[in-house]
TrEMBL record:
Residues 6-48 form the SpoVT-AbrB domain. It comes from Lapidilactobacillus mulanensis. InterPro entries: SpoVT-AbrB_dom, SpoVT-AbrB_sf. It comes from the Bacteria. This is Type II toxin-antitoxin system PemI/MazE family antitoxin.
Length: 74
């Protein structure tokens, strides 16, 4: 697959084909190798930064859920 570099305003842009299904807003780390190749790697969230764990963590009592399911079958 071929892509072409374009100029948009004061930036040089390399488009990502739709078939790659990259979500809008995804961040990448970019590297240029000595042979001229450019590699984009998705940037991963550092699990030790921020307070994301307070927002996304849902603790569940497995035994309570199992009892609820068991009572539904009776």
């Amino acid at each position: 697959m071929k892509v072409k570099v374009r100029t948009v305003g004061n930036s040089t842009t390399l488009t990502i084909p739709k078939e790659f299904k990259v979500e809008k807003g995804t961040e990448f780390e970019a590297e240029q190798h000595s042979d001229g190749s450019i590699v984009f790697k998705p940037k991963h969230r550092n699990p030790f930064e921020g307070d994301w764990f307070n927002q996304n963590l849902k603790q569940v009592d497995i035994m309570t859920e199992a009892e609820d399911l068991d009572s539904e079958w009776r």
